[in-house]
Amino acid sequence: MSTAIDSKLWSWGVRALTGWSRTNVDAQGVHHRTPDQKALADVVSPLLTSAWWTTESLHYLAHLDAQRFAGAWPADGFDNAMVDEAHARWATGSAITALDLCAAALGRVHGLAIKGGHELDLRDIKDPKKPDRLARLPPHWQKWVRDVNADPDYQQVLAGRNPLTHSTTPRTITAIMGSSAVFAGHELRPAHQLAGVGDVVRRATAGTHGGRKLVEIARDVATQYVRALLLMAIEHWFPNEMSKVVAAGRLTRDIYDQMVEIAHLVEPDRPGLVNLILPLEPK
User: Fold this and answer.
1) What pLDDT, in 10s, does the model give residues 204-223?
2) Residue 277 contacts by C-beta under 8 Å, 6 or more apart in sequence?
3) How many other β-carbons are positioned within 10 Å of the β-carbon of residue 81?
4) Other Cβ atoms closer than 10 A to 229
5) pTM for the complete prediction?
């Protein structure tokens, strides 16, 4: 099964966001980081690891969800309405968690104060009562925060996550009459009513499929913006890192090969980086 985020993309994204890489080695090949870099990486790396794994879990959930509800619903002792709600809670809660962990990493990197021992989340950074928080981020990270908050899919997932975490969502449940009736397919799943955005997951007649649509929206919005954060970190770090290496006369074959690996990794999403490094190939 394919994964949402390549492990190399995650690894280089963490390096880029915390300002260090495998290029920082001495003549003996020993990797060096300043104390500040090490302390930052020790905090940010677990946050982004959790964001990555949480995003991957949504792809696993979508797989399980399709197995259970795409055909005839199983009679395995687990109530299907319960499973539907559990999947909706898993999907919405995990998607918001993944994006909040990315926001926490940005807050740590840029020195935003945590709240009483808790990491900042997206709503904290975008809080209109605390405009200095967003203003302290570089413009490209401000754009990432604004893009996530402005995305209607994110707002839909957030509108499902809050009640599913703290209460529940009103649901429209289809009744099939007859003792021999069989439930089958996503279109018969309950439609979750999400506060503030209307019935975002209506039935098939409206072009969507109840709980399945909620699972898919949550998976896709988390994947989109966690990947975007990693790619953006590399995009803004890569040229500067490459310039430092070249200026210091440290562009060895090994370092060049690492740079090419990074450039090819992000090329589908960030075209042009390969062309920056290829002309510098050591002779």
Assistant:
1) 333 334 788 889 999 999 99
2) 242, 256, 259, 260, 263
3) 15
4) 24
5) 0.80
The residue count for the chain: 283
What's the CA angle centered on 267, arms 145 and 220, to 5 degrees? 45
Q: Cα separation of 57 and 48, whole Å? A: 14
In angstroms, the CA 151 to CA 143 distance is 12
Q: How many CB atoms lie within 10 A of CB 14?
A: 22
Residue 206: what residue type? A
Q: For residue 86, give the nearest of 185, 228, 189 by alpha carbon.
A: 189
State the CB neighbour count (10 A cutoff) for residue 57.
19
Tell me the sheet residues that pair with 118: 115
Beta strand pairing call for 171-172 and 191-192: antiparallel
- Dist CA 112 CA 206 (whole Å): 43
- Token pair recorded at residue 243: 């310039």
Residue ranges of the alpha helices (H) in the chain? 7-18, 35-69, 80-109, 122-125, 131-135, 139-150, 152-166, 210-247, 253-266, 273-277
HEC string of 252-281 equals CHHHHHHHHHHHHHHCCCCCCHHHHHHHHC
Q: What is the DSSP string of 170-198?
A: -EE-----STT---BSGGGSPEEPBTTTB
Going by C-alpha positions, the residue among 57, 83, 56 that lies closest to residue 69 is 83
Contacts of 261 (CB under 8 A, 6+ apart): 8
Q: Is the pLDDT of residue 171 over 60?
A: no
CA-CA distance, 161 to 206, in Å (whole number)? 22
